[in-house]
Design brief:
The protein is of the alpha/beta class. It is about 45% helix and about 10% strand. It has a six-stranded parallel beta sheet with strand order 3-2-1-4-5-6. Bound molecules: 6-O-phosphono-beta-D-glucopyranose and magnesium ion.
Length: about 220
Amino acid sequence: MQSSACIFDLDGVIVDTARYHFLAWKRLTDQLGIHFTEEDNERLKGVSRMASLEIILEIGNKKVDESQKQEYATLKNNWYIDYISKMTPDEILPGSLAFIKELKNANIRVAIGSASKNTPMILERVGILELFDAVADGNIVRKAKPDPEVFIKAAEMVGIKPGKCVVFEDAVAGVQAALNAGMMCIGVGSSKILKEAHFVVSGLNEMNLKKLMTIKKDIRL
Ligand code: BG6
Ligand code: MG
């Protein structure tokens, strides 16, 4: 598998930050008097910060102006940063490190493709920033998933054509972004939710290079 790349979403694939996003949004919604559940939080996975806020305001049936939206997003992000600044390498999800290292040893490029603007901080806190050949994140893209921009950018950064890239994603919008980029997509999570992915595993602990090659052989884009 030379001249190919694996692109990983970060939140929910390599680290379990979804609960920190939830706790921070919950603090904001409690303050605004909006009833916000873990089920609602599912809709925010893979979705950019401002788009998440729009969904939350829609749930609460609240109309606010642009400057207030900025204020709410900043409040939420400051609380979120409080949580992620305390993260440790123990929070890397099982199997991720072993799989990524196996790919690197096989000369396969590895990149991050995440909507999060906090990507560099998280990678640094859990000690894996140096592991990746490229990091494409919310700081360098303009269009949110399901737009393919972040994955196309990651592919460009590692110099591999989209058709030779495999994306690992836990969010419906992320799976769609990968497909829109013309990439193979392995869903990480529930096959009931990630129906559109080419293959689904419950976590990266279920992945290894041999399995990836078998999946790739069975799938034609
Ligand atoms: C995605 C998360 O990875 O990043 C979303 O799944 C989040 O829940 C988005 O809203 C943006 O993150 P941030 O850190 O830029 O607010
Ligand atoms: Mg994710």
